[in-house]
Amino acid sequence: xxxxxxxxxxxxxxxxxxxLVWRYGRRERALLGLPEGRIVSADTSGWRACPRPLYxxxxxxxxxxxxxxxxxxxxxxxxVKPGRRAAHAYPSDVLQLGAYLLLVEEETxxxxxxxxxxxxxRTFEIPYTPALRxxxxxxxxxxxxLRKAHRARPQHADxxxxxxxxxxxxxxxxxx
Length: 176
Fold this sequence. Notes:
- The protein has 176 residues and is α+β, with helices and mostly antiparallel strands.
- The protein has 2 domains: 1-32; 34-170.
- 41% of the residues lie in helices and 20% in strands.
- It contains 4 helices and 7 strands.
- The chain has helices at residues 2-32, 91-108, 130-148, 159-163, and strands spanning 38-42, 54-56, 61-63, 67-71, 74-81, 114-119, 123-127.
- The longest helix has 31 residues, at 2-32.
């Protein structure tokens, strides 16, 4: 009888631990702003690694979103910016997410309806519109044009960005 009682208590204990782990996972997922759906890949510590970047030969572009979530019949890229606190999504973050949306479309042959930008206090659902897609393609063309140019000027007037730039020590036009 003692063995039966021990096994029953052990089973209850394991069930409690499983339930606590499940609750913790749900809470963490909610804090990150991740939607319901199966996480297909992740490029953040603590989750299974994204095996390879998304790639488009046509646009000569590769990248790894923080998460790819299977929502119904679509893969949705999710980019997490835990240090950001803003009422609106930053244009640079929208463009980055747009690049991931383009890569998902190229890899799967299916146009995702949206992507998610998860800031510290808010998650933005960014629709994958033809205008966003064109902005990404235009930005890629502009980057290639500037790369071929002999001299590209800084694209900002923010001294803080210069102070934190990894190329500052080699830059002749640093603002800070």
